[in-house]
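testing teh design pipeline on a random one, pls ignore if ur not involved
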């Protein structure tokens, strides 16, 4: 039963996702959830991101408004409106900072909209808080991270300067069972005294967030209670667990299940043959060197395990001989795939993942254990959580900055065929069940979202 059936007018929520697939996808799921809670939804984006959003949502009830993405940004080629299209992730801060130029247009449209109950925007669009404040609208931030990563970052920040070597483990004050090194963080937090453009950007985000109404966390309370409690005890604003958002079905996605693409047909064949498949993918924006790509190819080939590998950007460097050699045992895909659909295929029994938070949640919800290979952003912390905290995965071993074929082969075999793999496979099934329960009517995330909107709606 929706908590809003007795309210009139309905709550009206404005959503503003950051222009990056890993940030848009969860907010599309949230849009759908809000409709289930009888809210109306207006979603802001830019023209180049609109087709993906329209293709994913079929709800006429969601109004999509595009604002032009700012042009003439040094280093950003014209027409690039999403981080996965950036020539290099080193342009991230310029790209994210450029979004502030959308503020006047955003406010022009915002003031003409029917009464807005609240704005939920990505933390990277921290300037939207100023707009919300100007019009007296409560604003909630979304950061796409786990409570574990947010809490550890917060707890560790004051300890970073005390440790000379980036490899030196130190114990967290609030979580004495957790040891981290500066290398578990992303640059500039790998430095003793972090500074620079990314640091300044993150500082602006944290200031805006602490002045907003709340933080929406794409997770479920039962997965990380100590870390959610820490956020609500030690920092502002209040954090609300409303996920895993990936368990929400988008109506447009459903027909895809019946219209099978070649990799799903291939997975069907593997199912018929009884050959478990390792899914290999590193999200929407990882940058992998040619040398590393060759080591991955070697490790997968030598493992003799069946695999489906989604290679983005640099896939051509593998050469045709690789695909000839692996023939039926492996498939390399260079297109954009429906990752959830792949993970949900019953023959997929392991995921070699960069541990972007959406991938971790999608893997959990599909009962697939992870072989963690963190690359950037907060992924090292996600990998730590996966392996040490919730114990649903194993981790690759890096030597001299690279994962070697031989080592990867051994880890792949351990995950897919070994005793440790069985343990984590058993554990992920338990965690998946708790995830499903949290979003059911009456579950923790379902209640939290309902109560939150009711609270803001009454407040207005
Ligand atoms: O071919 C593809 C590639 C990706 N995806 C989806 O794209 C999303 C990717 O998100 P994620 O796994 O989180 O990876 P990134 O795109 O790398 O995500 C960025 O954003 C995340 C959320 O803030 C962070 O946790 C990551 O560290 C950051 O790199 C997931 O929903 C995937 O299912 C597809 O559906 N098809």
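output:
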């Amino acid at each position: 039963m929706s908590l809003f059936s007795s309210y009139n007018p309905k709550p009206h929520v404005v959503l503003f996702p950051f222009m990056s697939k890993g940030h848009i996808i969860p907010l599309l799921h949230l849009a759908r959830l809000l409709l289930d809670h009888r809210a109306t939804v207006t979603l802001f984006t830019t023209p180049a991101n609109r087709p993906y959003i329209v293709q994913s949502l079929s709800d006429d009830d969601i109004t999509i408004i595009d604002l032009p993405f700012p042009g003439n940004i040094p280093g950003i080629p014209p027409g690039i409106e999403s981080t996965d299209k950036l020539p290099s992730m080193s342009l991230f801060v310029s790209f994210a900072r450029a979004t502030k130029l959308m503020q006047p247009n955003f406010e022009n449209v915002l003031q003409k909209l029917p009464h807005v109950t609240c704005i939920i925007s990505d933390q990277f669009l921290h300037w939207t808080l100023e707009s919300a404040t100007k019009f007296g609208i409560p604003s909630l931030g979304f950061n796409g991270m786990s409570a574990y990563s947010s809490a550890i970052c917060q707890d560790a920040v004051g300890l970073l300067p005390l440790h000379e070597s980036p490899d030196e483990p130190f114990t967290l004050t609030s979580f004495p069972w957790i040891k981290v090194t500066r290398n578990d963080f992303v640059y500039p937090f790998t430095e003793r005294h972090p500074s620079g453009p990314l640091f300044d950007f993150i500082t602006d985000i944290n200031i805006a967030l602490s002045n907003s109404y709340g933080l929406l966390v794409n997770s479920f309370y039962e997965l990380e209670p100590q870390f959610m409690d820490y956020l609500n005890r030690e920092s502002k604003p209040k954090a609300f667990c409303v996920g895993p958002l990936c368990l929400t079905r988008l109506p447009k996605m459903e027909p895809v299940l019946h219209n099978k693409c070649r990799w799903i047909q291939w997975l069907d064949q593997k199912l018929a043959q009884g050959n478990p498949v390792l899914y290999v993918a590193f999200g929407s924006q990882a940058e992998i060197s040619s040398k590393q790509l060759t080591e991955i190819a070697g490790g997968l080939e030598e493992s003799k395990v069946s695999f489906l590998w989604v290679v983005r950007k640099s896939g051509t460097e593998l050469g045709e001989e690789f695909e000839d050699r692996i023939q039926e045992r492996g498939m390399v895909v260079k297109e954009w795939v429906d990752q959830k659909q792949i993970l949900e295929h019953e023959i997929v029994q392991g995921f070699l993942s960069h541990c972007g938070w959406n991938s971790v949640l999608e893997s959990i919800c599909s009962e697939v254990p992870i072989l963690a290979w963190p690359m950037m952003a907060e992924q090292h912390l996600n990998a730590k959580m996966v392996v040490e905290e919730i114990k649903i995965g194993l981790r690759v071993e890096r030597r001299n900055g690279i994962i070697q074929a031989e080592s990867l082969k051994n880890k792949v075999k351990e995950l897919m065929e070994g005793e440790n793999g069985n343990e984590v496979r058993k554990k992920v099934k338990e965690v998946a069940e708790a995830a499903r329960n949290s979003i059911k009517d009456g579950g923790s995330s379902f209640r939290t979202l309902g109560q939150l909107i009711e609270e803001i709606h009454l407040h207005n």
